[in-house]
Amino acid sequence: MGYFRNRKLKQLRAQWQSPKTWDREFSSIRILFDLTRPSSDQAVVDDKTWHDLDMDSVFRKVDSTITSVGQQYLYRKLRLLQDSNSRLEDDFKVATTLKEDRDLREALQLNLSMLKQGDAKLVSKTLFDTIPAYTFPKLAIFIWSLLSLATLFFAAYLGGAYLFLILPIVIANFSISRYFEGISDGIADILYYLYNLVSISERIAKLELSRKIPACKDLEDRRSSIAKVKKVMRRIAISQSSENLLVNNAMYLLNLTFPYDFLVYSLSIKSIVSETELMKACYLAVASIDSSISTASYINRNDHLCNPTLASGDAMELEDAYHPLVDNYVANSFSTKGPSVLVTGSNMAGKTTFIKTIGVNVIFARSLWICHATQARIPLVDVYSSIKTEDGLIDGKSFYFSELERLKTFIEMAGAGKKCLFLIDEIYRGTNTIERIAGAATVLQELAKGNLVLVTTHDIELASMLGSQFEQWHFEETGNIDKPFDYKLKPGVCTSRNALKLMASMGYPEHVTDRAKRFALDLDVEQ
Question: Which end of the chain is more exposed for a tag (fewer CB within 10 A), N or C?
Answer without folding.
Answer: N
